[in-house]
Specification:
Layout (H helix, E strand, L loop, with lengths): L2 E10 L2 E10 L10 E7 L6 E4 L1 H9 L3 E2 L1 H10 L1 H6 L16 H14 L15 H10 L7
Parallel strand pairs: 1-5
Antiparallel strand pairs: 1-2, 2-3, 3-4
Length: 146
């Protein structure tokens, strides 16, 4: 059986997300896979590439052939160079972790209290009354009508 390491497409229209899978070369693109060994999310900035290096090395060692897109991903992560015995590439850019929303809220609450406010001020501004003022003159009839 010819085994390939290829991409399996997931996600919605214009929001492609892929799984890196090991599958028989005769199966469909999104068909049954032998094993999932990684993720690839190209729309994130920077792109999210996660490959289980141990499993990728195993499948490459037993003769699985990567497709061209997967080969590029393996070269980016350094797994291909490790398999071939070449020097490793520069490390990938990693996205910064998202800030903790609860900690941000607590910091903002402490800032308003320590800033001299009593903490009773609204967090969002009030709606303006311009809309009400614009409607009032329109209701009065003009002298020319009648």
């Amino acid at each position: 059986m010819a085994v390939k390491i290829k991409l399996k497409r997931l996600g919605m229209i214009r929001n492609a997300q892929y799984r890196i899978v090991v599958a028989d070369s005769r199966t469909k693109r999104d068909g049954r896979a032998i094993e999932e060994i990684g993720l690839y999310h190209p729309k994130q900035n920077p792109s999210r590439i996660e490959i289980d290096a141990e499993r990728a090395a195993y499948w490459l060692g037993v003769g699985a052939q990567p497709t061209e897109p997967v080969l590029k991903l393996l070269k980016l992560t350094g797994d291909w160079q490790k398999f071939k015995g070449e020097p490793a590439p520069t490390p990938l850019k990693v996205a910064e972790p998202a800030p903790d929303r609860h900690a941000l809220y607590e910091a903002a609450a402490k800032e308003t209290v320590s800033g001299g406010d009593t903490g009773t001020a609204a967090t969002t501004p009030r709606k303006s009354k311009k809309k009400d003022e614009a409607e009032a003159p329109a209701e009065t009839p003009t002298e020319g009508e009648g």
